[in-house]
Amino acid sequence: MPATPRSDSDWERLLAATVESAPAGLLVADPEGRVVLVNREVERLFGYARGELLGRSVEVLLPEHSVQAHTALRSAFAVSPDARPMGAGRDLYGRRKDGTEVPVEVGLNPLVTEAGTFVLASVVDITIRKAAENERTALQEELRRAHRLEVMGTLASGMAHDFNNVLGAIMGYGEIALMETRESSVQQDLGALLGAVERGREVVKRILGFSRGGERAMRSLSLGAPVEEAVHLLRATIPASVDIRLALHPQTPKVLADPAAVHQIVLNLATNAARAMPDGGTLEFVLEPFYLLDHVARERPDLREGPYARLLVRDDGMGIPFEVQDRVFEPFFTTREPGGGSGLGLTMVSRLMVEHGGDVRLESESGRGTTVECLFPAVEGYPEREEEEAVVTASHGGGQRVLYVDDEPDLAKVGRRRLESMGYEVVAETDPRKALEIFRRAPEDFDVVVTDYAMPGMTGLSLADGLRELRPGLPIVVLTGYLDVLSPERFVPAGVSVVINKPVTMSELARTIHGLLHGP
Questions:
Q1: How far are the Cα atoms of 11, 61, 212, 340, 487 from residue 205, in angstroms, in the given order?
Q2: I need a labelling partner for 498 at 20 to 30 A (CA). Which of 144, 175, 481, 519 fits?
Q3: For domain 401-518, which CATH number applies: 3.30.230.70, 3.10.310.10, 3.40.50.2300, 3.30.70.270?
Q4: What are the C-alpha distances in Å from 164 to residues 245, 389, 390, 402, 503?
Q5: Are strands 101-113 and 116-125 parallel, antiparallel or unpaired?
Q6: 48: how many CB neighbours lie within 10 A of its CB?
Q7: pTM for the whole thing?
């Protein structure tokens, strides 16, 4: 049979062993708030030896900012001594012997004796639980942020499509008017209008660059263009009290990079810098050539000696305390108040720099600002993809028949007029199903088809499928405002010959159709 206590002394020893071995800290205070008993877990949790606590006020275990409030709570408990948890709905902290604070959960029970009412406090260290809660909160915020970005990306794509249609109509009519007028002042005005449309195209590209996700489109490029684009967009979002300065060194080497990722890097660094200057200041971007020497590279294991493009982002804000600078690139770490950010901005920058084979470092001093250095390895031997517009004469056609399909009446009209001015015979339709029926009646009458991608009732891909069933090998050009968010591989099974991002210029359209009919 199991042994059971037989005397009062046996019960006392069992009770003492239970208190001593309890997983929670157990502390007893007398009516004056002096510690009269603690167990081993209290010693471990607070770092005091038992003899250092007995006879001292319980306030020694509290942070200084909590002592006054606790004294009042202790007095209230003496008046109404019933069992209760402490800290419901708010954070409680204890203070260790070394001065550090630890999150705790406390339960109180009165012990009524002949000597008075004592208080039994159970104290539980909830450091691990709080860390898990904080991580869960941060993950939930990251999911919400990712969802917001996804929604923004979808919204940006839709807006870009609509905006590109508007720009396409303006561009088309402008080019037609420019061809038909001989008055120099009008030609200058129309040239300025077309220049504004071109800038509008670039704005749309930048918006899509910020919202685009997926795999990195790495290519050899000069960082100056994407950095300058990002800074231009930032001017509209950063407070006017922040003076933005940009210095691009012309001899900065090319790198292998994704322009959209460079946008993200600049955006995150600029956002952090602006938040560090709530009252305004100077935000400076410097892009310059940099040669990393071997003895310095050995201190940065991800890098090696050689040429780099160096991006410096400087602010004269409040700076980052030295003791936390080593943690700023950790996920979810932030020096801002709750709600001030997820702590993922610099983590994203660090991840993107690793993807680009580079490195990011930070120098900061409290009250003296912060400088972030991003090093991109220089590359040679990768051809830079140039976005050049060849000069093409408008008159490329020789009476070939073109079926032009766009659900926007203005774009269908301007497309017909453009192609007719080039010498083509054009049938323009706004309903893709009607266009398919026209083609079905005489599939050999058309030499090429130009169609929009996003149309109600039938997409450009579905139309291309139907056309190719009727006539395999038919040259088909698809125009889309979604090229940045659609995979080009989606167009191949439909037999699409060429995909062009909207708005399309007259020169692009002429060159494309001429190439399909006569070879490049």
A1: 80, 59, 10, 30, 16
A2: 175
A3: 3.40.50.2300
A4: 31, 18, 21, 22, 5
A5: antiparallel
A6: 19
A7: 0.47
